[in-house]
């Protein structure tokens, strides 16, 4: 986690969502290419 929302419930929800994602590495030809990506997770509360 890069940064906390400062709300445990939101942090836990974000982690649970990300655990369900499937990673597909970037490739250059057939060779996986190392990289870092930051994906913001935005919450909308009713």
TrEMBL record:
Please state the protein's primary subcellular location.
Answer: membrane
Membrane topology per the record?
Single-pass membrane protein
Q: Which Gene3D superfamilies match?
A: 3.30.1150.10
List the subcellular locations: Membrane
Keyword Nucleotide-binding applies: no
Q: Which domain of life is it from?
A: Bacteria
Q: Give the residue range of the signal peptide.
A: none
Q: Which UniProt keywords apply?
A: Membrane, Transmembrane, Transmembrane helix
InterPro entries found in the cross-reference section: TonB/TolA_C, TonB_C
Q: Where is the TonB C-terminal domain?
A: 1-46
Q: Which NCBIfam families match?
A: tonB_Cterm (TIGR01352)
Name the chain's protein: Energy transducer TonB
Q: Which organism is it from?
A: Methylomonas fluvii
